[in-house]
Amino acid sequence: MSDIVIRNATVDDIERMAGWAVAMAWETEQKKLDPDTVRKGIRAVFDQPGRGRYFIAERDGEAAGTLMFTYEWSDWRNGDWWWIQSVYVAPEHRRQGVYAALYAHVKHAAAACADVCGLRLYVEHHNTNAQRTYESLGMVDAGYKMYEAALLKPRT
Hints:
Blueprint: E1 4-8, H1 14-29, H2 35-47, E2 53-59, E3 62-74, E4 79-89, H3 98-111, E5 116-121, H4 128-136
Parallel strand pairs: 4-5
Antiparallel strand pairs: 1-2, 2-3, 3-4
GO molecular function: acyltransferase activity, transferring groups other than amino-acyl groups
InterPro entries: Acyl_CoA_acyltransferase, Bact_Acetyltransf, GNAT_dom
Organism: Arenimonas metalli CF5-1
């Protein structure tokens, strides 16, 4: 049995997390991301912690995966949803409990905060492997479709 440890990500992890984010976007959506933009986006979370929080899973002492959560205020519940995002497990560490450990860590942290009303995430319709993983951990389909109106502005 391998040893999985979850730790807070640091700025020293940005390069690895950016590489993982680029890989994840390609694997799940065949979207090619600009690595420099991704690095800046990850750095922005460290610069403004109110945007979210990153964790790193280490398996047998090696960085194996990551997860970020962001916040969404719910006036209906007078509390925050923590949105799980930017999930990635390196291929050589998949099916080894890495995501389950990340999820358990975040779920425990959320349960310890009185102002957190739950955890949410979104997943591509065709990503059935991820859907099975989330369901195996007790998450359920919330019954929503997600819509967006992207504002395509150049970012510096």
